[in-house]
């Protein structure tokens, strides 16, 4: 079943498996890229409002403005890592097709930006307890995004769900490894008085 290109990113939210399998059958690179960029700009706009309401300062505003760049950078990094990982499992290289399909789940990150806005509104008018309770919703939203990425991997590379889930975690593991190494280096430099 082929869904029109204009609605496929939205169908990922309501019928993820069907929409992602259809996208894998007819991958459209421009659609994946456009979805990542649009989701980045929409999230940035929402995050700017949340930052202004929450008094995030210059650092928060800078992060909000850089969100579209972060989205595209993560999308590229994810495609490179996942394609390499999938190839190690015996799957053929399908990076471009994966990029076309994996861009669609980025629509779900708009919900994360909306949650940040709800937290800022709650902190401003509802109190810190309500804002803290809303913050816990970020975990299921991030899990939803990882699940959609795993479904994208399974659809493109035809891998079992557990293998696809493991590959979906690769970018997070790589980012955490880099952060841990940077922390170790900074700690050593601080210990010897350089920093």
List its salient traits:
82% helix; mainly alpha; 195 residues
Structure description:
The chain has 195 residues and is mostly helical. The protein has one domain. 82% of the residues lie in helices and 0% in strands. It is built from nine helices and no strands. Helix 3 (29-54) packs across helix 5, helix 4 (57-88) packs across helix 9 and helix 5 packs antiparallel against helix 8. The radius of gyration is 19 Å and the shape is globular. The model has no long low-confidence stretch (mean pLDDT 90).
Number of strands: 0
Shape: globular
Order of helices and strands: HHHHHHHHH
Stretches where pLDDT falls below 50 for ≥5 residues?
Answer: none
Give the distance, in angstroms, between the N- and C-terminal Cα atoms. Answer: 59 Å
Proportion of residues in β-strands: under 5%
Task: Compute the number of structural domains.
Answer: 1
